[in-house]
């Protein structure tokens, strides 16, 4: 047992020490055990390296705010072990890490397999909404719905032990790290960069996958030069679990035929696996996004682009798209004004984090009686990390300083929004 530093990952090796390294990356909410049934066959040719994401499988709860940073933590772990070049297979979130590695560090990746993956997973709104659900209700609603997202109905019914394993695996994930991973996927989008992936790539998808299905797989194949597509019959999102033999066979064939430059895959002997103890804290804190420092005398860029980015992150793509679509010659200049100055200037300043700005905004809207804006800024406050209990405290504080009547109306609006946003979808 050993402590895993914040900049590295919990991992394990299986297979011969002198074999080339093949990395297996897991899906969000799962652990390295999702690959258990691939390991016996893969270790005939490769030294298999598996890792857990922060807060998963008892790994220390050091949340990772982006796919890029998680890829860097993986590389830092490999650097400590002397692993320079490797093959990589990743499922869903693990596939995003693989794409990131192939784009930013192509010299490290010998061959790539993307399973149940996508260049952009759903929409940013969907993942930030999932974060709101977890922050308000914990992981139990996500855990209970995991089997229907991950497996075909027939498999889930016929394999109750595996179904229960899936539910418990999600329940034991650190909520703060899960929310941070949702934020990372919300920001992940490599659609415009697929043409720069230059390593041999297999894109594998379950025929019944309703999460990242054949449409997403074909987008990857169309964008990545010379990528090949494999569809696994009778499999849903976690194809390596549901159809282990078929997935293993495809991986063996791909990495056996498409491995590039396997020499010196390990430049120093690997150390023994490091298994970190469970994190002591029940939920990891999510650090606010870093803000760029101003450079004295520098020409300031137009804040519009930064403003539209922040506006979408706080209010959601659906809301912003609706407002901009409704703008006409009369209102378009106003929309540009608030995007540039309210969102690009004030909301983008480093002096307050977004949670604090949401508290100030809610109070101001209560004071002004702006109930329509209070509704979508209550949604924004949930997305920015405020819990329903914290929003209640803001409104109670506002009742003292803005008036009971104003707060009474505000409570009705906020209550309806919170109920809608935090009730898990059946």
UniProtKB/TrEMBL annotation:
Keyword Hydrolase: yes
Lineage: Bacteria, Bacillati, Actinomycetota, Actinomycetes, Kitasatosporales
Domain named Carboxymuconolactone decarboxylase-like: residues: 333-415
Organism: Streptomyces alfalfae
Protein keywords: Hydrolase
Domain (AB hydrolase-1) ranges: 21-129
Pfam families hit by this protein: Abhydrolase_1, CMD
PANTHER family: 4-CARBOXYMUCONOLACTONE DECARBOXYLASE FAMILY PROTEIN (PTHR33570), CARBOXYMUCONOLACTONE DECARBOXYLASE-LIKE DOMAIN-CONTAINING PROTEIN (PTHR33570:SF2)
InterPro entries assigned: 4CMD/NDH-1_regulator (IPR052512), AB_hydrolase_1 (IPR000073), AB_hydrolase_fold (IPR029058), AhpD-like (IPR029032), CMD-like (IPR003779)
Gene3D superfamilies: AhpD-like, alpha/beta hydrolase
Stretches of the chain forming a coiled coil according to its record: none
Protein name: Alpha/beta fold hydrolase
A molecular function (GO) term: hydrolase activity
